[in-house]
User: What shape does this take?
Amino acid sequence: MDDRSIDVAGAEDANVSNAIGSLLETKFVEAPITFVPLSCLSVSPLNVRRKALTGIEGLADSILAKGLLQNLVAHPAKGSRGKNPKLCVCAGQRRLAALQLLAEQGKISADQSIPVKVLSEAEAVAASLIENESREPMCAADQAIAFRLLLEEGRSIDYVASLFSISTLAVQRRLKIANVSPKLLDVYRDDGMSTEQIQALALCDDHEKQEHLWFDAAQSWLRDPYHLRAAIVEEEINVSENPLVAFVTLDAYVAAGGYVRRDLFSESENAGYITDMGLLQQLATERLLIVAQEVSAEGWSFVETRVKRDFSELSAYSHITPQARDMTKKEVAHYAKLEKAQDKASKALDAYYSDEAIQEDDDKREALEDAARDAQTACEQFVEGLEAWTPEQLASAGAFVLLNHAGKVVIERGYVKRGTAVSAAYDGDGSDAPKKAKPVHSDKLCRRLTAHRTAAVQVELAARPNVALAVLMQRLIPTVFSEQYRWGADHTGVQVSVICSHDKLLHEADDMEASATWQQIDAERSKWAAMLPQKLSDLLAWLIEQSDDVMANLFAFCVAATLDSVTGTEAVHPVNKLADLLEVDMTKYWTPTRGSYLSHVSKARIAEVVSMAVSPEAAVPLAVMKKEEAAAAAELRLVGTGWIPEVLAYRDVADLSGDDDQSAEETDEKEEDGFSI
Assistant: This one.
């Protein structure tokens, strides 16, 4: 079989060819050979070869020189009777064409006797397929249609698979190709598309859609297998990549009436696409509600379910922890033993890592790592056993029942809406004074992260001239109409004093220049710089000559360039409102890596992030690693989770309405942050 045959598995296609000889001997050898006038022979409509014949003149010369070395195979034509009934050649089409060419050239008689093995019509398709497989390799499209004809004759898939010693999946794949539009099969036969392309088109059973995707493609790249497949499945969900499928299970979805578009050409088991996302979400929600009812029985003020973790939503909540009771003397002694065992296991692992002379031993290393991990887990479980939620905490806090990226249920308890007073926050001596929380992120890291936030909003704002105009007007009007708006508080972060934040962002984040966001900003900046006049004296005249479109887009870029939301705290910022209006998705512009985040926080924070974004189980191994190793491992675990730190996710907006009771001190603080003119 040539390289245009469907490559299901090399061994399966080889089996087809290997079976030819024995099949010809056992299936059709008993049929007698008769001699039939050439004029009584024509091509059978059941001949599986559809591709244009080649090499006919050379074959004719060979037959003229050496004679016809092998008989043809034919079946009676429907309705043909008489002394010399018409026969339809189902195997030997090239030889028949060569003989007819010789007759046209007058080199042989039109009534030349030709040896023919006559079969019944029911055996014709199989004979044609076997004959063609043993000769010049068939086009995969012809082979696929032949398989379909066998099934239409009443043969089963198992029969065809057994006939050619191939798997039933191989037969199903060929039948899928046979279901492609005849027009596209012609393109395939003429080498106008690749096997991968026709396999992609075979995902769809609608011939009209298949032809539209191929013949009406505006650009040639739209015919690439990837884009053809994407256009067919559109909003359908890939079974292998969706956590809801892992949670609900494909069997439950199908049992509920859901349809799966199967991808027979994938090597993955159960590959395909979910077509009814609504049904899948409904099934997932119903299952999560069952878990939520169990959690609700614990006494929480609210329990909510989510099919996906939304970091921006959860960042609107603060998180409390359960209260630990005092240990008894017996428990103190037991915990001391657990700590001693943990310390011993940790030291043994550290000694192994530090000994450069020791020969690498994977088994020993894994045993030490397991021991250290088990010892730490034992300590953590013991401490957790001492913790309990107080009635006050249960009354003021709630829980979320979520699905993680792998489709596993995660229950997160102790969430309180920001601003809610929680009496369960105690200090170390057990008094009711709330603890002063240590900031999660340092001043330097906050400035680094908010620099990236600023760049992301700049990109979005530069693309929306109408919003840029509104933003600038919102900064100007309170100043012009100060008697109405009093202080003219900044709700956007734009500095109307026209201070470009370009260099500041590079200074605050040393990884900014390498980011895709910055490359986009820089490319836009270079474009405008090339268009602008070289001399400042020529600028006004140049601006007056420009079209409205150029002016609007240049205006938007310049306003965006003045945006500055860099701050050293995690407090809410006026830029959040603008980010919401622009629907800025920070996960498109920032990802957690060692350089961008993980190397700038503690190892405990690294483990906390992995626990939140992936699962608590995924965070356990990090505890026995050195910080840089933990950061590297966390970076891999966080890929594709969409996690972003609270300072980038939290979108609440402070009240900057300029009420009369606003203190001068608050106004001064805003001015120091660059919020006013």
Remarks:
- The CA atoms of residues 446 and 569 lie 6 Å apart.
